[in-house]
Amino acid sequence: MRFQGGLKAEDWRRWGQFTTFKTNAAELVQESLRGDEIVYCSPLVDPYQPAEDNERMMPRVLEALLKAERPPRVFTIQTRGPGVLRDLPLLARLAGTMDVRVSFSLTTNRDEVRRWYEPHCATLEERLRAVRTLQEHGIRTFATLAPLLPCDPEMLARQAIEATRENVIGDPFHVRIVKRHGATTRPEAEKVSRVHGFERWHEPEFQREVVMRIGAVVHAAGREFAVGTEGFRWLAS
Questions:
Q1: Which of 83, 199, 225, 226 has its Cα between 20 and 30 A from that of 103?
Q2: Please, which residues have CB within 8 angstroms of residue 115's CB and are 6 or more apart in sequence?
Q3: pTM for the full model?
Q4: Chain center to CA of 21
Q5: Does 4 reside within a domain?
Q6: What residues pair up with 102 in beta bridges, in sequence order?
Q7: Would you tell me how many other CB atoms lie within 10 Å of the CB of residue 212?
Q8: What is the pLDDT of the chain when averaged over all its residues?
């Protein structure tokens, strides 16, 4: 977003303290669709972050998709916000014309960890209720264990399996030694980890162990588990 979003250096230093809305997003959707596309909303920011409660941008986007003469083939929403349920009637209508998928982020089963890393985000129980409600209304919903915060890996995996019918996606903290290009976990999260003794969750070898433990539970339930690009590809394939 740095240059493309019009951000300045000072804005980047204040990351997480403000939200910028593209006010003509719905109009751009209508103008841009060419049919048979895969639309992923969104790899950069959560479309159902708290600011959306007042802005109500997503209903306009969804209504634009409903009006489209050449709708996309797949429309995927990535979120950790139960606020997505506000737009359930629109999503249910969309699901009748295209493949609608919701990737719901479940990061930890330990609420004190959630408060340390994600103080403005919903609890796991609130997220699981949202996942179940989406599925009850015919929306394909994936449990995405990303970013994998300190947790009981087996318990989090079981909760994800019990709440969903799809394969399970995961992604540990991004560290430069493994991810040579692109964004990595921000220093603020690393500081939280140091303060609370979770440095190992940033170590590649420990991350591989956690991923294997989750994978064992998921595979035993007859589903697939994948991390990173391989897993997120399921949201578009």
A1: 199
A2: none
A3: 0.91
A4: 18
A5: no
A6: 77, 141
A7: 11
A8: 92
